[in-house]
Request: fold
Amino acid sequence: MATDSLLDAAPRSTAAPSLPALIRTPDQRVRVFVSSTLDELAPERAAAREAISQLRLTPVFFESGARPYPPRELYQAYLAQSDIFLGLYWQRYGWVAPGMQISGLEDEY
Reply:
């Protein structure tokens, strides 16, 4: 049939179909992991927490939550569940703990 040949001659898209935009429920807000030294940048960390919250995002800080896990496992779990990484660094960036090859902050990054 003539219509069959017209359909066969039409270019076919090889692109994958686009997915609809992800609409998160309020309990699944975008999580922002904040990486920095705890004491050195306390005012900046507080300002970051406030700004993230005002954007209706969820701030994720290492010191949040219980600590039944080793520190490295804890921050790696927090990182794996976060959508955005925000690094705030200054003079104490890079301290390497005994037994580590790199600093905790570098390991987070």
Q: What stands out?
A: The two ends are 62 Å apart (CA to CA).
